[in-house]
Amino acid sequence: MKQSEPSRRELILQALAGLLESEPGARITTAGLAKRVGVTEAALYRHFPSKRKMFEGLIEFAEEAVFSRCQLILQEHEDARVRLQQLAHLVLVFAERNPGLCRVLTGGALIGEDEGLQRRVSQFFDRLETQVRQILKEGDIRQGLRPLVSAGHSADWMMIFIEGRLQRFVRSSFERHPSAEFDHNWRLLAAGLWVAEDLPAAF
To answer: What is the C-alpha to C-alpha distance for residues 12 and 128, in angstroms, rounded to an integer?
Structure first.
């Protein structure tokens, strides 16, 4: 089946993500973005009424990509340990494959932009943390997997791991991949999530 061509709206978002990846630290202007897409600034504004809406479009893409796949993970796996392992790997690989968007999620690309965008990014991570906390609580109830401290603290620990890996990826100019040595890092992370006796040797 022939793949459909991306819409002009999608091309604009792809161009924005490309600029964020190739020109870290540079301020994105609508003139520069229009040049990269090959359209006029007026054409940009026909699809996005403001630059804030363009950034929101990237955040919405991240939400759809991550949380739709998260639902599949929940459907495919019942073990809370596997669910969280798969979820962590999902977020890290997504960021790795989308460096420009990773700069948005870590906040660096939003410096000097509309302050509301930072809140939108916070909502993304709050939603992710809520999902992690829910998986931990269900694992405790259904499988007897006891959080080392509490579901809230364990979720916080996992978010520190994920967000830290993303920050280091951006700080290293995308050289230190978030998913590098994931299996080893997951074993270390899991040791801080649950009581040790609840973990199989593979973890």
So the answer is: 27
- The residue type of 61 is F
Spatial contact of 91 and 128, defined as CB atoms under 8 Å apart: yes
SS3 (DSSP) at 33: helix
- Considering only CA atoms, which of 103, 108, 9 is closest in space to residue 62? 103
The SS3 of residue 72 is helix
Nearest to 191 by CA among 202, 179, 199, 182: 199
Residue 176 in tokens: 């230190």
Q: What is the pTM of this model?
A: 0.90
pLDDT in tens, the chain (203 residues): 345 567 888 889 999 999 999 887 778 888 888 888 888 888 888 999 988 999 999 999 999 999 999 999 999 999 999 999 999 999 999 999 999 999 999 998 998 888 899 999 999 999 999 999 999 999 999 999 999 999 999 999 999 999 999 999 999 999 999 999 999 999 999 999 998 755 565 55
Determine the Cα angle at 192 with ends 147 and 180, to 5°: 130
User: Rounded CA gap, 135 and 27, in Å?
Assistant: 39
In the numeric block, which tokens belong to residue 134? 């829910």
Whole-number Å distance between alpha carbons of 171 and 60 = 23
> Look-up: residue for tokens 């962590």?
88
Q: 């951006």: which residue's tokens?
A: 170
